[in-house]
Write a structure and sequence with these properties.
The chain has 14 helices and twelve strands. It has a seven-stranded parallel sheet with strand order 3-2-1-4-5-6-10, sandwiched between helices. Strands 7-9-11 form a three-stranded mixed sheet. The chain is an alpha/beta fold.
Length: 294
């Protein structure tokens, strides 16, 4: 297939693009800068120069493709404190991509969670501003698009991870001299190696049916205490419990520390015959690359 990928030069995109090419697909990656264009070319993909403001260009690139994988997000706007603005931009991009594919039966693969019909779980899903994007993608199923949603685990780890959950925790630990967790630290985060996640994207493109919800975690949930203790061991600093009232100040750059999230991948494995092969999170941390990165 001829696949148009947004976010092609990003952390996950840089794993997905080579996986697609190895699987025999031709890839065109969206590049918003010269540096991104160089990175996309180096992976063996073609380049489509453009940005989120060029909706006509995005529609054109999508219409020319056999499939679209949407990985990009306006992180700069989000980090500047305007999460709603970043979501609004993403909604406009998704609308442009979906409109271009409407009635073709071609795949549109996006990041997100669909409603499940369980009130409690759906309330949690709807609490995220990005849920509006998931609903928009899912809505194109009824307009003749093979839509697929991929739930990315909280910790998508591997070489090249510079801005995710783990690098953030390591920076906080280095800055404060302790590797912290909240309370007893038994709250959990799902995790997945970025190369296993990339493999899932290729399988999704090749085999997932319209309306599929896929879960890309290879480990359903790892306790934050175990993560903190591993970080502390590598930095030679203590892992300590922090009371909830101190957490907001200690983890001011990371307000998600106390969330308890699990993600089962059983149905996804069965649907796609997906067999993750890369190291789990703790084994990946023990390889040391997170602690030598500049």
């Amino acid at each position: 297939m001829h696949v148009f990928v947004t976010g092609a030069s990003g952390y996950i995109g840089s794993a997905v693009v080579p996986e697609l090419i190895e699987g025999g697909h031709e890839v065109v990656g969206l590049a918003r800068s010269d540096a991104s264009a160089t990175a996309v070319k180096a992976m063996g993909a073609e380049v489509h120069r453009g940005d989120f403001d060029d909706l006509a260009g995005l529609r054109e690139a999508a219409a020319e493709a056999d499939a679209v994988i949407h990985l990009a997000f306006d992180h700069a706007t989000m980090l500047a404190g305007n999460f709603a603005g970043a979501v609004a931009t993403d909604l406009a991009v998704v609308q442009a991509l979906g409109d271009a594919l409407a009635g073709t039966g071609k795949p549109l693969i996006g990041v997100g969670l669909a409603r499940t019909g369980e009130a409690k779980r759906d309330a949690a899903i709807d609490a995220s501003p990005r849920s509006a994007v998931s609903r928009a993608i899912a809505g194109f199923t009824g307009r003749g698009v093979r839509t697929i949603l991929v739930a990315i685990p909280s910790v998508t780890h591997g070489a090249g991870d510079r801005h995710g959950f783990i690098p953030t925790l390591i920076k906080i630990a280095r800055d404060t001299g302790v590797s912290g967790y909240v309370g007893d630290g038994t709250n959990r985060w799902p995790a997945g190696h970025v190369l296993d996640v990339a493999r899932l994207y290729r399988l999704a493109l090749d085999k997932a049916p319209a309306g599929a919800q896929l879960y890309a975690a290879t480990e359903p949930g790892i306790t934050v205490r175990e993560i903190a203790e591993t970080i502390g061991r590598h930095l030679d600093i203590p892992a300590v419990s922090l009371p909830a009232e101190r957490a907001a100040d200690h983890f001011k750059a990371f307000p998600f520390i106390a969330l308890d999230i699990t993600m089962s991948n059983t149905q996804t494995r069965q649907l796609l015959d997906w067999h993750p092969t890369h190291p789990g999170l703790i084994a990946d941390l023990d390889q040391g690359h997170y602690f030598t990165a500049g």
